[in-house]
Amino acid sequence: MNDVNDSFGADAPVYVISVAAELAGMHPQTLRQYDRLGIVSPGRASGRGRRYSMRDVQTLREVQRLSQEEGINLAGIKRILELEHEVEQLREQVFHLANELEAARRAVSRRGRPAPPDGGAQARGELVRRTRVTIFNTAEQRNDDDSRDGGPGKGGSGRTGDGQG
Fold it and tell me: How many CB atoms lie within 10 A of CB 20?
């Protein structure tokens, strides 16, 4: 069993349903039900037959443990598995972002040059962020137009056409 796992990896869909059911200690019909419910979704062979990976078998064992030992229903187990998958994805994302951050910090430190006499931030290798902000205020424009036309938008500038206000 470990030879197959080592050769193909934990995610390689290599086990037919009868073998996966035996490895997980379940009936094949239980595996079909879990597949229909989306709890454990195996790969498919070209003839549409289910093919389970070692990771799928481990998940089946965990489903069985949660159900029998913890008394959790299938809907709860499905949600737990979804959340565990989400946590794993987030950990992977954090790992990649931390690597990118470290690479950016190294790049900035490599750019560091002696500071010029005026002490400019660019020369020390510090990042400078420039931001342009554009504010559109269309509501006030409509109110001004309404007040000039004598319309109901009296919240505009409060000025009248004769210059008194």
Answer: 24
| Per-domain residue ranges of the chain | 1-113
Q: Summarize pLDDT for 11-20 with one digit per residue, the tens.
A: 888 899 999 9
For 42-78, the pLDDT digits (tens) are 998 888 889 999 999 999 999 999 999 999 999 999 9
Q: What tokens were used for 8? A: 């193909």
**Cα separation values, 5 from 32, 40, 54, Å:** 23, 18, 7
Q: What Rg do the C-alpha atoms of the chain give, in angstroms? A: 32
Kindly state the tokens that stand for 97: 């972002």
The Cα–Cα gap between 30 and 84 comes to 22
Architecture field, domain 1-113? Orthogonal Bundle (1.10)
Q: Give the predicted TM-score (pTM) of the model.
A: 0.57
pLDDT, tens digit, 9 for 90 and up, residues 133-163: 777 766 655 555 555 555 554 444 444 444 4
Q: How far is residue 131's CA from residue 100's CA, in Å, rounded to a whole number?
A: 22
